[in-house]
Structures are given as C-alpha cells and as structure tokens.
C-alpha cells in the first residue's frame, strides 16, 4: 500500500493573491514567522499497531518510506477495512505514555501518537457516542489518578466525582485567525493574523491596486493603494470573516505597503503565508471596534451632571434671594411697627409685589393707629 505525505512545511506551495497560482515557498526567508508549524517526530522504519474494536483485536504494521508518514485519512481508511467499519461511524483513540486515552482526529495528533509507540501503538476503536471520553472529556483518567494519590496522603471525606456536563467533542479544530493589537492600531483599522499551520490550504483572497484617499498636512491627496478584490469560496480568508472585498491593505507583517507594487506585496504575502499578519482598513466600518463609545458615554454623563449642578446652584441662589427678600420685608415691618413718629410713609411702587403689599398693609395699620 502506497502512502502519501504532506511533506515538510517549508516545501508547501503558497497561494499567490495576484496570479491565483501556487508558488513554492522559501526555506531561507521568514524562518522566524513560521512559529505555528507543528513539530514532526522522527519516524521509525515501520510502525507496529495493535487495535481493538469490541472483542476483536488486530495487529498490523505500517511501513514508512523515505521517512514520510501517512496521512490521517489514509490511516483511518486502513483501520476501517481491517475491522469492517464501512457503514459504522467510529472514533480512533490511542493510549499515551501516562495511560490516558487520547483521540486521533487529524494529521497533527496522528503524528503525535507516534511518540507513544514503544514499541507498539495501542489503538481503541469505538462507535461514535459510546465512549466515556467522548462524553466527559479526554484525559480525565489522569486527573482521577492524581486525586486518588492525594487522598492517600491527605485524609478527606471521599466524594464521588460529579460529571454532569455533557460537552460536545470537536473532531478537528485549531486557531486559524485572530484580531491582534487592538489597543495599538487606530479604530478604523484592523490587524488580522491568519494561521495555516503547515497545511496546503490557500489564503483564499485576491488583491488589486487602486486609488486611496488620505488626509495629509498638505490636504486631501490621492495615492496608490492595495485592495482585496475577491475572496475564494472555502478559503482561509472567507472562513475567518475578518476580511472582505474592497478592504485596503496597509501593512503585511509590520511592513507598510505604501509605495510598493502589486507584485512586491504579493511576494510579501507568499513569503509570510504560514503566519500572515495583515493590517487592513475595512471598507465597512460598521464592524470595527468602537473603543470611544465608553468615553462618549462618560462625557455625556459628565455633561448631564454638570447641567444638574448648575440648575441646582441656580435654584439655590433663587431660594436664597427669595428668603433674603422676605427677611428684609419682615425687618422693615418690625422697624415700622416700632416707630412712634408721625411722619408720612412713602410707598415705592417700583419694588416687588410682595414688598408693596407688605408696605401697603403697614401703611394701613399705621393710619388706623393715628386716627
């Protein structure tokens, strides 16, 4: 049986956004940027496998030619044929060094399982939905063993571990994108990291040159820019949802694209395809993060509080003025009532109504006393 290999990550072809073709990667360039590539174990000449499905056991070996490992799909097809599981959905797990039962769901953890082959790789084949680990999580046996070891040293009340949460088991997942440097880039920009993890999946977008409008100290100017022209269906860029058509490309892995040609930007993206960090200005600004909304809310609240304080201060001043006017009128009334002179009282009609009414009342009372 012939086995096919994906090869080392440095030999993978990369997708050229400008030409739509695959270009061979470079081994010398961008060695620091390829930090997300999986580490490949040193493969033996052949791999001894012992698999178990229900009460059925199978022993077989897999030959490795030219130090190339088989893919997970081909290995799964081989197991499916040995145990006659063509019409049965099943899961494949292996026993690690620590005794945990870990799943094999993709090429990465399949290569990782080679480290546990000392000298035999022990597999457990189960129907989907019937395994304890698939329901409660893989690696729980190690936690239980640690708890038992601690319970022997520390006397505690024995309690049965409760596992009441039924969490689904994702079969194949990994980080493919992320928004980074949110506090550094401007609000209208977005810095996106695309991770290929050594796979041959294309980046999945095309770029074009165009005209961009920038505000400079000399005024508004039109300059040449790089834009995303199309997204490939099923590609990496479309699956992330972070890039869109007509987004302007500003930087590629920290290098500004202003003043560079379309071919130069394409080469930059191809060289950094395994760990591409692209800064864009989204054409649709509705989906950008509005970091200033909290400050605007605080400004509004501060303005409303200031307004309330001013209104309260004005009302206090009015109240003090009214109280002061009333106290002045009462003081005048007391002076008029204590005065025994026969001088005429002059009423000033330019005063407030309250003062006038009080003065007229005092004048009427004084007139009655004189009579």
Automatic annotation (TrEMBL):
Residues 46-128 form the PB1 domain. GO terms for molecular function: protein kinase C binding; small GTPase binding. Gene3D superfamilies: 2.30.42.10, Phosphatidylinositol 3-kinase Catalytic Subunit, Chain A, domain 1. SMART domains: PB1 (SM00666), PDZ (SM00228). It is found in: Cell junction, Tight junction; Cell membrane; Cytoplasm. Keywords: Cell cycle, Cell division, Cell junction, Cell membrane, Cytoplasm, Membrane, Tight junction. Residues 361-371 have a biased composition (Basic and acidic residues). This is BMA-PAR-6. Residues 191-284 form the PDZ domain. GO terms for biological process: cell adhesion; cell division; centrosome cycle; establishment of mitotic spindle localization; establishment or maintenance of cell polarity; gastrulation; gonad development; polarity specification of anterior/posterior axis. Belongs to the PAR6 family. Residues 1-29, 315-371 are annotated as: Disordered. One of its GO terms (cellular component) is bicellular tight junction. It comes from Brugia malayi. Residues 336-345 have a biased composition (Acidic residues).
